[in-house]
Amino acid sequence: MRDVAIIGVGATKFGELWDKSFRSLGLEAGMKALEDAKLSGEEIDGVFIGNLSAGRFIDQQHIDALVADYSGMATHHIPATRVEAGGASGGVAFRQGVMAVASGLHNTVLVGGAEKMTDLDDASINHIMDSTADAEWEAGMGLTLASLYAMIARRLMHEGTATREEIASVAVNSHFHGELNPGAQFKKAVPIETVLRAGPVASPLGMFDCAPITDGAAAVVLCPLEDAKKYTDKYVKVSAVAQASDTLALFQRPDITTFGATVAAAQKAYSLAGITAKDVNVAEVHDDFSVAGILALQDLGLYKKGEAGKAFLNGDTKVGSGKVAVNTSGGLKARGYPIGAAGVAQIVEVAEQLRGTADKRQVKDAKYGLAQSVGGTGSAVTVSILEAV
Amino acid sequence: MSSVAREWREIPGRYNLEGSKCECCGKVYFPKRDFCPKCRRESLGKVSKHKIDRKGDIFSFSIIHEAPECNDFLKPYAVVFVKTKDDVLIAGQLVDADLDKIQIGMPVRAVLRKLDSDGASGVIHYGFKFVPDV
User: Fold this and answer.
1) Number of domains in chain A
2) Is residue A29 part of a domain?
3) Both A278 and A144 in a single domain?
4) Chain B residues with CB inside 8 Å of A136's CB?
5) 3-class SS shares of chain B: helix, strand, coil, % to 5
6) Mean of pLDDT values over A159-182
7) I need a labelling partner for A382 at 20 to 30 A (CA). Which of A88, A137, B76, B131 fits?
8) pLDDT for residue A158
9) Structural domain contains residue B81
């Protein structure tokens, strides 16, 4: 297996982008990544794209063909592959791209993620999100994805592992960083009272505990590490990308206050990268619901059980604290959550941090960065580790 | 919209809480599984039908205020994870309960209710919901 490098990154602005179509979003992110890598595009020999549900959001299946066509790759007959893994679609697409280059089957690969959500009404969008849980025995019984995360939150509070304030502070952390990110959907810090007083969605979680509905796309360009210098001097190394699975339904697990797939993927990723959790300087975690941020930091081994909530509440997760900076992009909550794009956008942010181009959000001397992408209630998880060179 | 067949084939589980029991290790599953994830190939052909105990205690709960269209008229409504007396965790709605008084550990039992329907002339979905067991 060959070592792999990220030589270019790009992302659209995230938000309710009424004037942008799925096609224009995907193209914009891809072109930005190619421009960043100083490639013409002719070098690309494979494309992987993360997307949850263009079929239901915009009635378009077969988006692999659409992406190949509109990015000008179909005329060269470059293979394009669409990847779906619930909320982890972007993370899994990234892993597919890395494996393609590492194996030697491909040399220069574009990994993209895109979702156009706002062409549908909110209730329909949420129903599509609910189908990333067990459609027959969770969503079909009247449960929503938000209510499943609410059950996790309730258990954490019941067991004394996290307080309501600690859970809310995950959103406060994301919004704090969102204000520093010009591409974020919500560029505004919020006090904890705003989160606690927001209208209820699924108790104990309210509107500010839930990531928004977002349009957006992100892309990265990969090549063998040994070739990276030919293109650019601002590249980062992909030290590991691991993936793990768990039961589709949350209620099928013995403990709902931990995601076994995150634990498994993290252990594998640390082992592949030859580091421990202590070496991580910056982390992008999947805070589609605030409580997921607490599970993430604990399951990734960055904090002990019961300590992650305190870290968020104390502000230890903020850039400049000297501890692991978490969701410097604004996370899914404030940067936005265009589902298939989210996992790739995390990689874009971590790469920016490691090459020192994260502007106001820059974590000083970041050496190792981590990204965790989650599908459903932890049924699919990827953990990627990037390294500054 | 779902077909009649899709609804009909899930009736044993939806109406009667029929799950599965692995004859190799004795583990009980709900919903049904055709083979046991623990015993794997050894369990092929050795997984029998098994009805889950209808009684249990609330393991976790949430009150839903933002619902899909088919359940919009229900909101706010309660959903629960229930640990049954045979130690299986299952998910469903909790009805006929004071939303302010729901607690972890509260005893409940499963009853047959209408779940939702596919519009005015579509399939009506029935299945279990939980009620306080007093």
Assistant:
1) 2
2) yes
3) yes
4) 10, 31
5) 20, 40, 40
6) 98
7) A137
8) 98
9) yes
CB contacts, 8 Å: A147 with chain B: 62, 64, 79
Domain that holds residue A324: 133-212+239-388
| Dist CA A359 CA A372 (whole Å) | 22
Confirm or reject contact between A252 and chain B (CB < 8 A): yes
Q: What is the CATH number of the domain that holds A141?
A: 3.40.47.10
CB pairs under 8 A between A and B: 94
pLDDT over 60 (residue A310): yes
Q: Are residues A174 and A270 in the same domain?
A: yes
Question: What is the arrangement of strands in the sheet containing A380-388, beginning at the earlier edge strand?
Answer: A80-83, A46-50, A109-115, A216-224, A4-11, A236-245, A380-388, A368-375, A282-284, A325-326
Cβ contact, residue pair A251, B89, below 8 Å: yes
Indicate the pairing of strand B28-29 with strand B18-22.
antiparallel
- On whether residue A35 sits in a domain, the answer given is yes
Listed as ranges, residues in chain B with pLDDT below 70 are 1-2
Of A137, A141, A154, nearest to B61 by CB-CB distance is A154
pTM over 0.90: yes
**For chain B, which residues lie within 8 Å of any Cβ of chain A, measuring from their own Cβ?**
10, 13, 31, 59-69, 71-72, 74, 76-77, 79, 81, 89-93, 104, 115-116, 125, 127
On whether any CB of chain B is under 8 Å from the CB of A202, the answer is yes
Residue B36 domain flag: no
Residues of A whose CB is below 8 A from B68: 123, 126-127, 130, 139, 144
Chain A residues whose beta carbon lies within 8 Å of the beta carbon of residue B63? 200, 202-203
> Do you find a cis peptide bond into B107, omega within 30 degrees of 0?
no
Indicate the average pLDDT of chain A: 97
CB A162 within 8 A of CB B94: no
Instruction: Tell me what pLDDT residue B6 has.
Output: 85
Residue % of chain A over a pLDDT of 70:
100
This complex has an ipTM of: 0.97
Q: What pLDDT score does B119 carry?
A: 78
Q: Does A249 touch chain B (CB under 8 A)?
A: yes
* Euclidean distance between CA atoms B126 and B54, whole angstroms: 16
- Per-residue pLDDT for A28 more than 60? yes
Record: contact A126-B68, CB cut-off 8 A: yes
CATH number at residue B88: 2.40.50
Task: Name every chain A residue with its beta carbon within 8 A of the beta carbon of B60.
Answer: 151-152, 154-155, 158, 256
A138 touching B (Cβ < 8 Å): yes
**Which residues does chain A have within 8 Å of residue B125's beta carbon, measured at their own beta carbons?**
140
How many CB atoms are closer than 10 A to CB B12?
14
Co-location of A79 and A140 in the same domain: no
A208 and A226 share one domain: no
Does the pLDDT value for residue A226 go beyond 60? yes
Closest CA to A191 of A207, A212, A208: A208
Residues A173 and A194 placed together within one structural domain of the fold? yes
Q: Are A368 and A350 in contact (CB under 8 A)?
A: no
